[in-house]
Amino acid sequence: MSPILGQNALEIFSRSAEQTRRIGMRLGGLLKTGTLICLRGDLGAGKTTLTQGLVAGWGSSDQVSSPTFVLVNAYRHPEGKKLYHLDAYRLSGPMEAFDLDLDTMLESGAMIVEWADRIQEALPDEHLWVDMTWVDETRREMRFSASGKAYQSLLDTFQERVYGV
Prior knowledge:
Elements (H helix, E strand, L loop, with lengths): L8 E6 L2 H12 L7 E5 L6 H12 L13 E5 L5 E6 L6 H5 L3 H7 E6 L12 E8 L5 E8 L1 H15 L2
Parallel strand pairs: 2-5, 2-6, 4-5
Antiparallel strand pairs: 1-7, 3-4, 6-7
Helix pairs in contact: 1-2
C-alpha cells in the first residue's frame, strides 16, 4: 500500500492564523540566499499569513503586507541579507515575470512568490511549492512539495522542526 503523499511532500492542517504564522516561522528559519518558496491558493487561503511567519522566522522585523500593487517587497535582515516577496496576481503571465529579473533577486536573497502558478514557467525548476486551501473560517490545509535534492533536504528538516521526527 503506497502513501497518499509522496516522499517529497508534507501536509499540514492549521487551526488558526497564529498557527499558520508559527508554521511559517519554522520554515523561515531555514531560508538562505537562493531559496525559492512558491505559494498557490485562492484568496483567503493564508498565503500572506504564512509569509508573515516566513519573514519573522527568517529574522526580519519588517512589517509584511501583500505586494499586490508594488509587485515586490524586499525585507531586510540584521545581517544585510534580503528576502523578496513577489505577488504575481497582477502579472499577465511568465513573460512579465521574466522582465522582473527574478534570477538576480535569487542570487542576492531568498524569494517567496504568491500566486506562483501564474508565472510557473518563469520560475526555476527547483523550489518548494506550497498549495494552500481554505477549509473553513479558522482552518487551512497546506501541502508542501519539494522539487530538487536541496528542497527535499529543506522539506525533511522542516518536517523535523514541525513534528520532531
